[in-house]
Amino acid sequence: MTSNPAHGVHALIRGAQLLTRKELRPFIIIPLLINLVLFVLTAGLLISQLDDLAHFLGGLLSDSKTDTSDMSVVKAAVTNVSEWLAGIFRWLAWLIAIAAIVLFFAIYGYLFGIITNIIAAPFNGFLAEKVEELLTGHPPPPEALHSMIFRTLGREFRKLMYFLGWGILIFAAAFLTSPTVIIPAVLTTLWGAWCMAIQYVDYPLDNHQRSFSELKSVLMRKKFTTLGFGGSVMLAKMVPILNIFVMPAAVAGGTALWVERIWSDGDPGKGPNGRSFPVDPAPTAKTKKWPKGIEGPKDDQ
Fold this sequence. Notes:
The protein is mainly alpha-helical. The termini are close together. It is about 70% helix and about 0% strand.
């Protein structure tokens, strides 16, 4: 199968459709409740910062200097640098303002996502397991509950360290190229999409105890599909209220992407610990062996 961004976008839509299946409802309730509580907390934090954002944008689009005496060191530094850039590239002030707004909501989305992913990781593992069983008829190998909880939490921190490590380099490169506007926008968008794909396609692979390096290798082979899926998740997470429902849809969609677009395209095998992994390819539209009520993927021409 070819790598196509549209396949990735369709995977998220497919995940949302799968959530309507009654077999999955018990595994969706707890993650949704976690999301709801954290949404209230992070929304309160977001609202508390809107005045500062409005003050910053007002100063950016005017010729007067912004008073930074009451700001934190970080906010004052960002304000001073932005005003300096705006003074040199006055004609880019509106583009800088738009980029600041996007960055503000992106940070909100990342903060919301990081917290919910760590807390809900074990529940997301169960959901991915049930989605895979629903799609293929074969669940991942059984595992003790306590073992799965510790493993999934450890995996979340492994991903977090990866995101933070490379994220610092990406944002440093974006800052250095900020006068160009386009380059940092492209860098941060691609990085955000890649992170979202890693986050949610990881659950089915982790259920088979496949390594983090294998996950990255698998996604690189389908880089355009990967970025299409991650980009659609990233955009959905930036929308308040909608982001409450994005996580379970992304888990289901990432599992469907793995089963229907990656595993079915020749990625069977065994996990690093020798645990069995299904060696028969996933059902296709031609074999028509998908469970009742589940639409199989269309074969690419």
